[in-house]
Design a protein that fits this description.
This protein has 140 residues and is α/β, with parallel strands linked by helices. It contains three helices and six strands, in the order E-H-E-H-E-H-E-E-E.
Length: 140
């Protein structure tokens, strides 16, 4: 099992940046994410919170993350992806669907048996063997 956390994909910094440096930072974070996925030899990958940098991300970043994770899952039918929501992935005040939940929905729609989502609706959840996770909760 491999565990990744706080990837903050789709990072969009404004202060002290230019459009070119913003694009370079986003490319860099997705580039490293691809390396991490490529180097993951385990059949179970846990992304433990803050997959994205915010509740909303650019649609292109959502598509890129979907394609990368979907490709990783399609490598073998034995692969399992566990997505645990973090504080950037859920907001009790939003009343909308987060980028995290939208991505999870599409991954589950295409690879249901391979994708587990742990969010505020589940509480403490066994994710693999003796490893458990709890998502960011609305009362935190």
């Amino acid at each position: 099992m491999h565990i990744l956390n706080d990837l903050h994909l789709g990072v969009n910094r404004k202060a002290g940046t230019t459009p070119a440096s913003q694009a370079a930072l986003r490319e860099h974070s997705f580039g490293w994410f691809k390396v991490l996925l490529t180097d993951t030899t385990s059949d179970t990958l846990v992304i433990n919170g803050d997959l994205f940098d915010g509740f909303d991300v650019d649609g292109g970043d959502l598509i890129t993350a979907f394609e990368m994770l979907h490709d990783w899952l399609c490598t073998t039918a034995h692969r399992k992806l566990v997505l645990v929501s973090g504080n950037h992935d859920y907001s009790p005040k939003a009343g909308r669907t987060s980028a995290f939940h939208l991505l999870a929905h599409f991954l589950q729609a295409t690879r249901l048996s391979q994708v587990m989502v742990v969010d505020h609706t589940r509480g403490l959840t066994r994710v693999h063997g003796r490893t458990w996770a709890i998502a960011h909760m609305p009362n935190q």
